């Protein structure tokens, strides 16, 4: 393998930070269009298509459990993709994850229903969902590493936030595509309509590949590979020198529970018989909240470049615990104005503080040689728990699925570990990129020398 050398201290070529941020934004948007599309379908469609032999409450529980399956697969994907990302580079992983996500999502749209194939249908659905989880495990970590290592001094928060802005953009796109589909007559929706958004993933994969294939490898990775060689076993170095930071990232990543509860459980609750709100209206709540998040994320990230990562992350984590109560209460009243207002406040504004700053916050905890592994493994273990938060929420909500206050308390409890993680972390927004994570004396590690 050959990686171009970058002299120590050399400036990042002009335009590369913006190019890397654009590639991260668009790639993440396309990747998470697929991922969040599944969430909408799991809440609204799959209970009747793949689990229709169960009673409605059980069918919803089983469907939401398949949503969590991808999160269980993500730590495995993080171990594998993180290892190769720190050995082969960020670019290769970014291209691979996008293609895998596009293929697995397209195949979901081709699956037979339970009425057509019996129990084989939900089994195939779970298999495709596992492939989605493996793909997502490497996507954000590789995009975060790419943008952080390309970013100019003093602006790492802003540039890394493009990855999460892209994620929100993908969620917005998935919601907008699903709105007209959800409005179809019931017979058409359940027979062929739900498949169309999944088939569009072919275009997603093609566009993403064209964008990412010409992206340059980061100067930090090229320099480290050329001068020191890549670490032969990134995981061993990570767990020896950065184990405490990995634990912090795992705890911090539980903040994603706010997203999964908002996106999936709250949608299922609002449209259930207990509340009876319109599917289309609730999808618009998510769409509007994501529009606001697209503006809020870079603003919060820019603020973190000035005052630090920790205070901004804490605002998001603690604030999300409080505003989730307001949002679920508003749904319980059946009031559309209150639901729209609190939904935008919770997810679009407050949650965006933590969501926009964590790419820089987590990435700055690690050195270049293990950054992708550290972020991937730490986040995906935390995200796995966040993914199954939806399933636990369905249980906690009781037989009728309407105990919203219990779910709000559960979500608030999941916001406590991120607060503790942030309070115990170092502030890194002013540390030079080349010095990030270097707080211990260098040790002899096995490396593979890379020739320029």
UniProtKB/TrEMBL annotation:
Keywords: Cell membrane, Membrane, Transmembrane, Transmembrane helix, Transport. The chain crosses the membrane at residues 35-51, 57-81, 93-114, 192-211, 249-269, 281-300, 312-332, 338-362, 374-398, 404-423. It holds the Pfam family Sugar_tr. The keyword Cell membrane applies. It comes from the Bacteria. It is a multi-pass membrane protein. InterPro entries: MFS_dom, MFS_sugar_transport-like, MFS_trans_sf. Residues 20-429 form the Major facilitator superfamily (MFS) profile domain. It is found in: Cell membrane. This is MFS transporter.
